[in-house]
Amino acid sequence: MRILFITILLSSLFVDSQDLKTASTINEVTLYLQGARIERTASIELKKGTHEIKLSDLSPDIDEASINITDLDGMRLNGLSYSATALEKKETSNNIKALDAQIAEVKDAIGKLNALNSGLDQERLLLESNRSLNSKDTGLSLAQIKEFGTYYRTRFAAIINERNANNEAITKASEQLNKLNIEKQKLNPEANERRGTITLKVITPSTRRYSINFSYNVYSAGWVPIYDITAQGTDDKINLAFKAQAYQATGTDWNNIKLKISTGDPQMDNQMPPTRNKTSRFCK
Q: The DUF4139 domain covers which part of the protein (predicted)?
């Protein structure tokens, strides 16, 4: 009878075990000179029992040792792991898609300009092959010959000017294409095709909605100090403005987030330890 009771108890404990996936939102980012600490929150409805929760759509370059589960809202943590997997092509970043569209548009414009130049070259060859008046044209008047000469001269000049304008446009478009390709490379296409997942194994005491607060470090982000020095004249005071130029290529978007700029080290605990009052007594 006792063995039967234990079997039923174990069955009721694991019958609600589920593998669940949930997204999370960024609460705050602390940006260091090299690296960043990202704090996130997730919310999920769970039944009483054992669950495996996958916190998905995270950066693929998380420092696994830095993952910290700060609050499980009453759940008990039984295990934690991190992995990065490749996404399907259909989940390509929207930023990459926008750049690809611009790149295709610029390439199309360059192709059209090259086609115009080819047409102008063919027209020039045609004019050159027909500009000489042969013997059977001796019946032409001087005015007609001058008219032909004016036409050829004007058209040749127009072809050269139009071709030069096209070449200038091609040069500018090629420079724009190069900038777009560099910008696309900066977005780290490899990171945008991969996503990180933190897997938690938890036990929930009751059926309700739970919140999960967690944080981790990434190193594909940082900031660079910039100084602006201005003065109204040689005898005036100098104004020094300190700014930060931030960058990130974590593979996830940072839209409308709370951002802190820090000169600290993400590997170190920058929280001030609690202090206690100590009393000293002196006797004469």
A: 213-276
